[in-house]
Amino acid sequence: MKYFLIAIFLLFCNISFSQSSKALHQIKPKWKLGDVKKIHAESYSKVFIKDSLFNNTEAKADYYMKVTDTTKNYTILYYSEPNTLDIKTNTAITKVDSAVNIFTKIFKNIEKETKYFQYELLVDKNTGQAFKVKNSDKLLELIEKVTSTIIDEFGQKIGKTSIQIDSMKQKLVSNFKTNEPKILETIINEYNYVMGAYSLTFPYNSSVSQNVMVYDVNAMSEFGDIEMPAVITTSSKKNDDNLIVNTDIDYDKEFLLEQIKKKYKNMNDLTTDDIFLSEKTETSFTTTTNWIISQKSDVVFKTKEVKVINATSVTFQ
To answer: What are the tens digits of pLDDT across the range 209-219?
Structure first.
């Protein structure tokens, strides 16, 4: 779940869900062959320790999405606009901040190497949800190459020898091969989170609550295999050809607490009263074409001394 992913380069830590079967209204994609959308994404992650800001990460990037096939399923080309990735991170610890700056420079170099790669996604026509990366072989080959570049540059930055760097590479390649399916799953999940409102059912100008199972978008995280019971309340406001769909997710706090205690033995004294988790999204559509206009998500997670706020805003042009 989002609130567990407190990482230096946390950009899009989101959730997806498998929803209940209650029959309500649903907006379906009506994308046309050749449709192109420019997508602007902004996000931030703030971590507070005892009400003091410990870490603040902000990111901006532009992407393009093009519909290249509409026969059986949609085929979508999804790629970033060169030189638009901007990551800024500040922490309360100088040494950590210095390391983060090194990583930021490395990731910007990687962005230059991968800027022309086009993800080719197969997307279900009824739900708008991707289910396969068609060019996964090329993608994984590129990721492995880029990962090797990370090790070379970072190893040199921290003064490692060639033998040490090669050892690091061998371990990383082994880990990479093991995690290939989850890497692809995470890429698909991140796309699907933005497009998630297509798979929702909801009443017009009203709301409905449904039981759902929530899972982490980051399939590689330590909580990536855990489904969490929750209740999602979906509401909509329809005015002419504009439709706004809102979601509010209420997690099962007992289940959440159990998972936290399993993973973090030093949190055995936590109770459900010590935990707060809020997850809200808002998606705006034009019903003329059924294209998304914008999508926003806000997540707040709090325990006794830690508070994490993650927010993402995506606009389609």
So the answer is: 989 888 777 77
